[in-house]
Amino acid sequence: MFKNFFKLIIYFLVFVFLGVIVSLLIFQIIDFDKTVKVPLLTGKSISEAKRLLNDRGLSLVIEDRDYDPEISAELIIRQDIEANERVKKGAGIRVFIGKEKFAIPYFEGMDVNDVELTLKKRGMEIGKITSVHSDTVEINRVITQRPLPGYFSDGKVNLIVSLGPYDVSYRCPMFVNMTVDEARKIAGALGLKLVEQKEGRVIVLQKPEAGAIIKKGDSVEITLGRGWGVWF
Predict the structure, then answer these.
(1) Which one is predicted more confidently, 22 or 101?
(2) What is the pTM of this model?
(3) Helix then strand then coil, % of the chain, to nearest 5
(4) Domain check: are 65 and 91 in the same one?
(5) Does some domain include residue 120?
(6) In this structure, are 16 and 6 located in the same domain?
C-alpha cells in the first residue's frame, strides 16, 4: 500500500512538471507570435524604412546624424537593433541618418565677409569667430581656420580673425629739417604713414606738429622744400 502511495506521488509530480513545461511552451509560442523580425534598414531612405517597419508593426526613431564615407547623405547608415533580430510589435527601431560631406576651402588671409559669402554658397556657415590682435594680418582677415581645408561632415567652420595691431600711442617725432629719406626710415620704424606734399630734399612743415599724441598706423603730412633759406 505504501508503494502505491509513493507511486501516486511520483505520478503527480511528473504530471505537474509536464504541465509546467507545456505551459511554458504555450506562453513562448504566444509570446513568439507577438514578435517580428527587424528588417535591414541600412542604406535605405527614411520613407522606405518607415514603410518596412510599418508593415511589421514597428516604428522608426531617428536618433542622430553622422557621416559614413560609404553611404550617401540622407540614407540610414546604421540601426540599433540588427536585421533579423526579433522584437515585440510596437517597438521603435533607432537609426542614424547620413550627413553630407562638405569640401572646405582655404580661407586664411581672406576678409571674413568674403568667407561668409563663400560658405553660404556651399550650404555651410561660420561657427565660432575668435578675434585677436595681429601685427602681421590686416584687420577683419582670417588668421587661421578649423577645420583645415579638406572634406568634413560638419558644415561649420570656426575662424580666428585679426583685430589688427594693438593701439600704440606716442608723441609725434620732429620731422622738420630732416631729409625725406631720414623721415621715411623713422616713420617706417614707428609704423607711421608719411603723406608727402610738394617737392624738395628737406622737410619744412609737418602735420600734426612734433609732440602731438599719435597712434601706430596714423598718417603724418609733411611738406618738402629746400630747407632753411628759400623754401619754395
Answers:
(1) 101
(2) 0.47
(3) 25, 35, 40
(4) yes
(5) yes
(6) yes
